[in-house]
Specification:
alpha+beta, Nuclear Transport Factor 2, Chain: A, four-stranded antiparallel β-sheet, 5 helices
Length: 177
């Protein structure tokens, strides 16, 4: 099983990792395909980071690594719904100079009734390519992520005690939108 995981990650890193001439839309889709291929739901484990790094800014990579010790691996952080998504697609892309807002449509068909929502990837242009800098959560249910991925990661990293053990994470905020 471990050899199969390594093979999938190597394939993803070599085949989909070409981001130098990719559009923000391409980077967004390749990022989510890579998450899926690597089996990443929550904060990526160290073994998955090499496959994801071609799509992430160095700042976001650092935040993910800092928050890894305190994250709940069962909660999907790359979408606004804790339980994660069943499907994803690019709804729209808005260019604002060297920043692109890629609106991702999601659904979770395992929830009854099915849940549909959109979140926005913030993708910035920098050497050598477009990279994911943040995610703005867009769900409107009572319990789920609100704000941004970097905000969630900052809270997760600050909940880790100085000896590296995880402190009790705060309860999820109620979304009032």
């Amino acid at each position: 099983m471990r050899a199969a995981t390594i093979a999938v990650l190597a394939l993803v890193a070599s085949g989909c990792g070409k981001t130098t001439d990719a559009t923000p839309r391409d980077v967004a889709m390749q990022f989510y395909v890579t998450l899926e291929a690597a089996g990443v739901r929550g904060i990526p484990e160290a073994r998955a980071m090499p496959a994801l790094e071609p799509y992430l800014t160095s700042e976001l990579t650092t935040r993910l690594k800092e928050a890894a010790a305190s994250a709940d691996p069962q909660r999907s952080i790359f979408s606004g719904l804790y339980e994660g998504y069943s499907t994803y697609y690019v709804q729209d892309t808005r260019l604002l100079g060297d920043t692109a807002l890629v609106i991702m449509g999601f659904s979770n068909m395992t929830q009854k009734p099915a849940v549909k929502w959109s979140d926005t990837l913030v993708v910035i242009k920098g050497p050598p390519s477009w990279r994911v800098a943040d995610l703005r959560y867009g769900g409107n249910w009572d319990f789920g992520y609100r704000g941004t991925l970097t905000g969630v990661l900052t809270r997760a990293a600050s909940s880790t005690s100085h000896d590296g053990t995880s402190a009790t994470p705060p309860a999820p905020a109620t979304n009032t939108r």
